[in-house]
Inverse folding.
């Protein structure tokens, strides 16, 4: 995986003004719907087609608005069954994959061969080590060369590399909430790496997807841990935050959002003020990361249905506690994918995500 701490934006005026023709695969899920919502409003995009990720060809067709009435009046697109061969010859400029890992793994090579830009929201290309991937996801990666070529597309960290690749692996929701507040501190040498990181995160039920499960039913859902020691996002955090990580996820009884608490240890002689200054400097010009003032703490209500990540921190001695909040379906999935798409094309990162009247200064207020 290629990463960088640089942030760069190319001049929009240097780009062609025609609409970029895109499609969404996996449009019937929560993240897929959010993608469609954003792309339909994007001034430089034409959403040409939407596909299911597993629907059989013999099932009755449905309009996207049948599944998500909130999109009524904005599109007449019909959800098509996924046909990988036809998709590869469709001529679209870019494909967003909100698909299972196995599906992305199977179809990405043919899409890349056709010259398309691929923004993959699955974890199929997020890890650089095929053996770690196989252990986490339960099958052998058959395209290890693509793991070398893929960019781990966290815009605040890898903006330069995003402009140089056609395979953009959109980070997971939990890892986004952990890497953003942790990585600048690690890169600056402020953290004792031997002590590792301990992370507790709580996600809304939408993080479990749209499939029906007993534990996510309205009358059954409750705050509880799951995936202890074995959650698939743990190796992603360790690799891209660049620190060994112990991760415990929790299911919360709310629909969307993630609150993460990260425990780190500062190196000898490093003060809390240095850590705060490091994060403030790292994200001072960021459109979507807000480092809160001392004494303020992130809340899911402050970031719900936005693409923001809010960060708060405090230290006692060398032990520093950092909290972050994101919307798992936006900054943790669809919003981040569109932000990455904007970076790849040299657009303002906020294009199609914030209302046109929202200034960069307003977006960066802490």
């Amino acid at each position: 995986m290629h990463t960088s701490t640089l942030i760069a934006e190319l001049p929009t005026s240097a780009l062609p003004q025609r609409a970029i023709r895109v499609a969404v695969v996996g449009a019937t899920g929560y993240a897929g719907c959010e993608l469609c919502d954003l792309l339909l409003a994007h001034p430089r995009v034409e959403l040409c087609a939407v596909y299911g990720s597993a629907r059989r060809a013999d099932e009755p067709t449905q309009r996207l608005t049948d599944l998500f009435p909130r999109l009524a009046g904005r599109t007449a697109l019909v959800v098509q069954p996924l046909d990988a061969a036809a998709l590869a010859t469709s001529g679209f400029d870019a494909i967003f994959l909100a698909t299972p890992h196995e599906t992305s793994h199977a179809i990405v090579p043919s899409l890349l061969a056709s010259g398309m830009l691929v923004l993959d929201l699955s974890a199929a290309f997020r890890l650089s080590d095929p053996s770690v991937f196989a252990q986490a996801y339960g099958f052998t990666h058959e395209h290890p060369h693509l793991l070398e070529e893929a960019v781990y597309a966290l815009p605040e960290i890898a903006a330069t590399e995003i402009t140089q690749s056609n395979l953009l692996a959109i980070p997971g929701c939990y890892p986004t909430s952990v890497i953003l507040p942790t990585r600048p501190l690690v890169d600056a040498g402020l953290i004792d790496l031997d002590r590792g990181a301990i992370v507790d995160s709580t996600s809304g039920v939408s993080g479990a997807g749209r499939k029906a499960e007993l534990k996510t039913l309205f009358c059954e859902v409750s705050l509880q841990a799951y995936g202890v020691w074995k959650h698939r996002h743990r190796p992603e955090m360790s690799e891209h935050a660049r620190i060994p990580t112990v991760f415990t996820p929790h299911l919360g009884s709310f629909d969307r959002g993630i609150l993460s608490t990260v425990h780190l240890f500062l190196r000898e002689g490093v003060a809390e003020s240095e850590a705060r200054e490091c994060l403030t400097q790292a994200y001072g010009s960021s459109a979507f990361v807000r480092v809160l003032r001392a004494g303020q703490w992130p809340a899911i209500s402050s970031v719900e249905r936005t693409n923001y990540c809010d960060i708060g921190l405090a230290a006692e001695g060398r032990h520093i506690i950092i909290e972050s909040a994101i919307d798992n379906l936006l900054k943790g999935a669809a919003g981040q994918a569109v932000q990455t798409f904007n970076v790849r094309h040299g657009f303002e990162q906020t294009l199609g995500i914030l209302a046109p009247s929202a200034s960069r200064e307003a977006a960066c207020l802490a």
About this structure: DSSP finds 13 helices and 15 strands in the chain. The chain has two domains: 12-170+333-355, 174-326.
